[in-house]
Amino acid sequence: MVDPVVRFLLAAVACWIPVRVAAWNSTYYNPVIPGFHPDPSCIFVPEQDNTFFCASSSFNAFPGVPIHASKDIVNWRLVSNALNRPEQLPTLAITNKSTSGIWAATIRYREGTFYVLTTLVFDDQPEANSSRWDNMIFTSTDPYSSASWSQPVHFNFTGYDTSPFWDSDGTVYVTGSHPWEVTPGITQTTLDLTTGEVGATYQYIWNGTGGEAPEGPHIYWRDGYYYLMIAEGGTGLTHMETIARARDIGGPYESNPANPILTNANTSEYFQTVGHADLFRDAEGNWWGVALSTRSGPEYTVFPMGRETVLYPVTWEEGEWPVLQPVRGEMSGWQLPPTNFDVPGEGPFAEEPDYLTFSPGSTLPIHLVHWRLPINTSYAISPSGYPNTLRLLPSQLNLTAYDGNYAGPEGQTLIARRQMDTLFTYGVNMNFSPTVEEEEAGVTVFLTQNHHIDLGLVLLPYTNTSTNTTALTPCFRFRSESYIAVPPTTVTPVPSAWLNRTLHWEIKAFNLTHYSFAAGPADARSQMQTFGYGLAADVSWGFTGTLIGIYTTTNGGEGTAPAYFSEWTYVGQGQYRD
Ligand SMILES: *[C@@H]1O[C@H](CO)[C@@H](O)[C@H](O)[C@H]1NC(C)=O
Ligand SMILES: *[C@@H]1O[C@H](CO)[C@@H](O)[C@H](O)[C@H]1NC(C)=O
Ligand SMILES: *[C@@H]1O[C@H](CO)[C@@H](O)[C@H](O)[C@H]1NC(C)=O
Ligand SMILES: *[C@@H]1O[C@H](CO)[C@@H](O)[C@H](O)[C@H]1NC(C)=O
Ligand SMILES: *[C@@H]1O[C@H](CO)[C@@H](O)[C@H](O)[C@H]1NC(C)=O
Ligand SMILES: *[C@@H]1O[C@H](CO)[C@@H](O)[C@H](O)[C@H]1NC(C)=O
Ligand SMILES: *[C@@H]1O[C@H](CO)[C@@H](O)[C@H](O)[C@H]1NC(C)=O
Ligand SMILES: *[C@@H]1O[C@H](CO)[C@@H](O)[C@H](O)[C@H]1NC(C)=O
Ligand SMILES: *[C@@H]1O[C@H](CO)[C@@H](O)[C@H](O)[C@H]1NC(C)=O
Ligand SMILES: *[C@@H]1O[C@H](CO)[C@@H](O)[C@H](O)[C@H]1NC(C)=O
Ligand SMILES: *[C@@H]1O[C@H](CO)[C@@H](O)[C@H](O)[C@H]1NC(C)=O
Ligand SMILES: *[C@@H]1O[C@H](CO)[C@@H](O)[C@H](O)[C@H]1NC(C)=O
Fold first, then answer.
1. Contacts of 375 (CB under 8 A, 6+ apart)
2. CA distance 401 to 514
3. SS3 for 506?
4. 312 and 364 both lie in a single domain
5. Each residue of 188-209: pLDDT tens digit?
6. Separation of 475 CA from ligand 8 center, angstroms?
7. Cβ neighbours of residue 347 closer than 8 Å, sequence gap 6 or more
């Protein structure tokens, strides 16, 4: 068998398309980082071997704040997670709601150090209450290592999307978004990046062009102007990017008459919600930008992967406003650096398939995530007597937990990866023999506690209609949770010939709108049966994107049966870009 990494590289070479000869002579495809990678912030660091780095939001997913790196701007490797140890942020365990957690990060590099500023948001505090917005700074001198990311330094800022700017006199300013339900606008103060000390007062420097929720600000200094670029309109169909400039960092800021400078609002494009952007220059001096976008079309009903990272070329003449090219699936741009997969780091390239074996002595790959902080004893790789398995112990809470918003420190046993392809096949083997009613283990397409589709093996009272007797029976239960209509829950007894055998489980996104959920004996795949069809629209909502993975729960009961998972695979089978 060809090593998966080699296979991926061979596939990448086979797909390589020669660049065309023209002023804009490269062709590339969006999204450049597919799946749940919203609110991108990216930089180019010549001192780090001409490498580009991006950070994105992770909400309640842990590890969080994924850091991607690229040498060619289109092939991105997950190289570390800035938030990777529970002790960095114990309060991630107690966030309330799926819109809480880690919001937009800004990544910047200064004199050998990488800085990531981000906000932990609590949705159960009043908007105006500064305890709702926990702003913090992570630093690292080696972004290829998760362990290198520091404990955060917290700072007091009533708001979110905080972004640092180093002025020529050495003063560091932090610019962020004041809560939109109170007095929306872009506010700024000074910040000591070492101590977290902020200025005594903050000021509103610009309120945008009138769109809802001015946010995601970044400042760039160029040709004697401070350029302040922000997102407006909210992160849905009316999302857009606008820009203003001033001679002094505190303003007054003059709005670009050409605003918005980037949006797909009011278009019929498949790529919608474009905004929340950042700009950077490559080694040739050409400007590029990133933003988030949702592959939803204007219908905005089927977009399970949520807000993804897209790339576009920018022209920025001296003394002029930058011009950002509209986001499409196929793009032309500045000449790209040569295709280069020689990027160090801990994780896979975007669109690289998974072939995970959980071999003895290995650790969990860094692209697998939990929902909030994990109970670490619930996850064991190759425990004694079960080599090449991942053992999960059940949480009492199921994937919905209390009210679909809160779960709390007791945790939910879930481990999953991001869906990163429109079409894919996910497979995993499972050994699980439940002994207590409602003990359950299975596979899930999980967006949030209020939006998930599960196929589980669960012990349920089942009435055998041929004998009229009811007994606890291992069953396949297919069920969905969503704010909108879901397919009916189905319960099917596990065929007796399959009991206590290793079962193979499969989730396929076999078309844009539907997922199939199937299972069967791992050693007799011809017997695989489909137990349910989930609706992608049921997991299209909010700020995050779908995760594909495995869970175990007692559904509130007392069970403790372990589930042993093995041979985890995920293979992308196509992107729809229109
Ligand atoms: C692409 O255009 C740049 C100038 O914009 C030029 O230097 C480069 O040689 C061109 N590359 C190709 C492959 O045509
Ligand atoms: C979660 O937030 C809701 C209100 O949004 C509140 O009623 C509930 O008490 C909160 N739960 C916890 C555990 O904080
Ligand atoms: C903010 O919320 C916390 C927790 O609910 C509360 O203790 C505190 O008094 C609130 N502060 C203000 C200024 O409302
Ligand atoms: C945080 O800053 C706000 C003003 O920006 C101030 O009202 C508040 O007292 C500060 N809180 C702390 C804990 O310093
Ligand atoms: C922006 O809005 C805030 C809050 O409504 C207001 O206090 C401030 O004067 C405005 N600032 C500018 C620059 O317009
Ligand atoms: C979209 O169209 C509406 C209605 O004409 C208009 O109010 C809005 O400004 C437009 N949005 C953008 C970003 O062009
Ligand atoms: C598991 O979590 C506990 C409590 O947080 C901690 O003391 C322990 O070091 C962790 N173990 C591992 C292997 O991470
Ligand atoms: C139901 O009872 C029949 C007759 O005893 C048996 O053959 C069958 O396996 C039972 N079905 C289940 C799901 O237990
Ligand atoms: C099962 O029970 C129902 C009602 O309790 C009865 O109508 C039916 O005839 C019974 N069937 C068998 C096979 O005993
Ligand atoms: C399967 O395992 C369970 C729990 O260990 C046991 O109670 C049951 O008898 C086994 N069933 C079969 C068919 O082997
Ligand atoms: C996907 O397949 C399902 C089940 O066959 C079908 O109902 C649905 O219309 C298909 N969706 C598309 C977009 O073709
Ligand atoms: C989750 O567990 C609760 C009991 O703790 C149960 O009432 C609920 O039906 C379960 N829901 C899902 C979707 O798993």
1. 395, 410, 411, 413
2. 25
3. strand
4. no
5. 999 999 999 999 999 999 999 9
6. 13
7. 66, 77, 78, 79, 80, 365, 366, 367
Cα(120) to ligand 3 centroid in Å equals 16
Same domain assignment for residues 300 and 369: no
Any idea what DSSP says for residue 465?
T
Q: For residue 414, what are the domain limits? A: 354-574
Q: Kindly report, residue by residue over 30-67, the tens digit of the pLDDT.
A: 999 999 999 999 999 999 999 999 999 999 999 999 99
DSSP state for residue 18 in the 8-state scheme: P
Residues having CB within 6 Å of any atom of ligand 8: 464, 466-467, 473, 493, 496
Instruction: Name which of 309, 308, 314 is nearest 326 in CA terms.
Output: 314
DSSP designation for 58:
-
User: Is residue 471 in contact with ligand 10, taking CB distance under 6 Å?
Assistant: no
Query: Is residue 348 included in any domain, yes or no?
Result: no
- Ligand 4 atom 11 nearest Cα: 156
| The two structure tokens encoding residue 237 | 């169909």
**What residue owns the CA closest to ligand 3's atom 13?**
129
Query: What total number of domains does the chain contain?
Result: 2
Q: Which residue is closest in CA terms to ligand 10's atom 14?
A: 500
Question: In terms of domains, do 386 and 426 share one?
Answer: yes
Residues 274 and 366 in one domain: no
- What's the CATH number where 473 sits? 2.60.120.200
Any idea which ligand is nearest the CA of 154?
A: 4
The reply to whether 337 falls in a domain is no
What span, in angstroms and rounded, lies between the C-alpha atoms of 380 and 389? 8
Residue closest via CA to ligand 10's atom 4 equals: 433
Q: Which residues contact 303 (CB under 8 A, 6 or more apart)?
A: 294, 295, 296, 540
Q: What is the largest CA-CA distance in the chain?
A: 85
The edge-to-edge listing of strands for the beta sheet with 51-55 is: 41-45, 51-55, 64-70, 77-83
Torsion region of 148: left, alpha or beta (phi above 0 gives left; psi -120 to 50 gives alpha): alpha
The verdict on residue 457 lying in a domain is yes
The pTM assigned to this predicted structure is 0.94
